[in-house]
User: Fold this.
Amino acid sequence: MKSKYISVFFFFSFVLVFAQKNKLVEEYLSVYYIKLPTNPILDENKRTYATNNESIKVNGFSKTTSNGSLTFDFIFNEPYTPESSEIYIQKDGKIEIIDAYGMVKLVDAYWYGVDYTSSASIVIQDTRIAETTKNNYTEESTYESPLFDNSNKALNHYISNRNSIQERYRTQHYQTITSTINKTISSTYGYAPYTTKFEIFLRPASKRNPEYKNFEVIMPKLKRTLAKMKYSMNRTKEDAQEIITYFDKTAASYPDDQMKPMRYACYFNNAKIYYFLDMPEKTQEYAKKLIDNGYNIEDGQKLDSISRVLLNDFEVNKTRSRHPKIPIESTHRVSNRRALYQPPIKTRKAYIISQEDDTIAVEINQKEIIRIGKTLKIVKYDENGKPFGSKVIEASECKKVIIENGAHFKNVKFKDLKNKYTSVDGSLDIGAIATTRSQPKLCKILFESNVIGLYLYENDQHIIIPAGKEKGKSTQSMDYILGFKAKLKTLAEAYPQVKENVKNDSYHNTEEGLLNFCKDLTTAYEAKNE
Assistant:
């Protein structure tokens, strides 16, 4: 009985070792070819196109200003920006907040959603046929806001950010639609280069395999050979022949059923090599060998199928190669470019008062006003007076920025501690707080007097600067969050009535509460100094 168990053990050990010896692994190599179109223009001299939109491109064609063999007329309708009364605000669960006394409490959570829909159309005129073709496209998105502790904050967030939110989805929809159109145009008419670094070939996984060392030599050669496809197919075919011959000889050297995986790898590799050498008939021969080998019939069937597709592409395009020389697209500009897909920017006049007290008149994109903070973006104009970009000005270069009929901004130094209290795990991030330095930033002036100043940074952080101080303090700092009343008492030390108001909880760490405190402090200062 003991000898029987030993025999069974050695039998299964032999089977396991043999199976491991014949195991295969994938090797990823780079390949390159041109995707052939389904409706080609066979005369290379007639591969021209005209379009009213610079985002529309056709690989392998030259762009002209008019009278192209293909004409693409593109119209983009950007998403509508709802009024504040049209958005829906939802109450959803609870969130934690720190109240004016530094206590954590749960309150109702609110958020809002906005639906955006963009549409576009493209009319295609092909001079080979009389009719035009029109295709319509639609993109839809829904913006969901962060959570807020009351509905008014949710509404105010939308009012402050609706232009930037709309611009985000306008850009996203425009890019998605034009990308879809370009893919469709390219597959129909164009000659799009295709490359990948992850084309699968096969080799033995185990060093026990008798061909392991030979594959270690042959696979780098195959990699170098395939890399030449982009430059010279004749040279590629010559170099590939040595590799193909090796795989043929290896497959013939292992006729036993146990070596089906080895034959499978050799047939599979040769089928792929011939496919990328634009020799689909030879690929079909090896596809049949894969099927007859019986190890992985599905791969043989797939290779046979893609070979048939390639043969059809060759017939439609009257060619035998996916490696033609493709003409470089011309750089002619389209004269009748429409502004529908890139609406003109709305600007506001502004005045920058520099650190040297020079006053500079500029214009600011209206959408950039809400982003004023560490930097300021002003509009640049070309020699014809048309906007063509923006220039970034650092906050440190400015004393003040005055928006005509709008907000005034001032250079304020303070520690920006927003989002720096907690680490990824939710614990207090002492390191971030300790290493944060006071930096100059442009803050909106909410209140200024001889005794105190109140400023707003990026629409959500209030900064207090007592008279005579160079640096401000964020009311989101730990001092204010955990000791709000103590901080206000210190500021109101010389004014008993205001200090009493602090004691009686007359002020809260909100914009309204801070403004009331600053006003009362200023009134007390003026009364004391009459």
Remarks:
- Residues 7 and 13 are 10 Å apart (CA to CA).
- Residues 4-18, 328-341, 419-435 have pLDDT under 50 and may be disordered.
- The first strand starts at residue 24 and ends at 35.
- Residues 151-188 form the longest helix (38 residues).
